[in-house]
Write a structure and sequence with these properties.
This protein has three helices and eight strands, in the order βαββββαβββα. It is an alpha/beta fold. Strands 1-4-3-2 form a four-stranded mixed β-sheet, covered by helices on one side. Strands 5-8-7-6 form a four-stranded mixed β-sheet, covered by helices on one side. A hairpin with a 3-residue loop joins β6 and β7. The protein is globular, with a radius of gyration of 18 Å.
Length: about 170
């Protein structure tokens, strides 16, 4: 069955400092800033909501909550942590050359980044944004939209049932 969606309109995250966020996502990662909203929310309070393009009609958005000083404890990507629903954001690139170029760009800007990690179906690098959001850049080794990579030896019942019926 084809997805009814064409991507992620926006994934909304929080930043305590929009200027630092713009400098990182625009200047370090190279994302285009495609929309900005500034909304008075009473008295001298003002809320910013900025959007960065991650592909056609797909954006990463940030709300600036400058009065929020505790945005939660740091959590590394892929490490279990109680009380959390969010793990990390992974940006897609087209191939290994693009992945290595992003790794070099991050290092050139002085940003700590991992070596390339082989996850069997994707290759990835990991790093954090200025406010501790865990990020990943990956590329697919296989076209999972054409040939799903269902490699769990003990799939959950919802997957096992459909696999037996020849569906994904």
């Amino acid at each position: 069955m084809a997805s009814p969606f064409s991507g992620i309109n926006h994934l909304a995250l929080i930043t305590p400092n929009m200027d630092e966020t713009v400098r990182f996502y625009r200047d370090t990662l190279g994302l285009d800033l495609v929309a900005t909203l500034g909304i008075p929310i009473g008295g001298d309070r003002y809320m910013r909501h900025y959007f960065f393009s991650i592909g056609p009609e797909n954006t990463l958005a940030f709300f600036e909550w400058s009065n929020v000083t505790d945005i939660g404890p740091y959590k590394a990507a892929g490490i279990p942590e109680s009380g959390r629903q969010f793990d990390h954001v992974s940006f897609n690139v087209k191939d290994e050359a693009a992945l290595l170029a992003m790794q070099a760009r991050l290092r050139e800007k002085g940003w700590p980044v991992t070596e390339v990690i082989d996850h069997q179906i994707i290759h990835s690098i990991y790093f954090d944004d200025p406010h501790g959001i865990s990020l990943e850049i990956s590329y697919w080794l296989v076209d999972v939209n054409q040939k799903p990579a269902l490699n769990d030896a003990r799939p959950v019942p919802a997957v096992a049932e459909t696999a037996l019926a020849g569906r994904t």
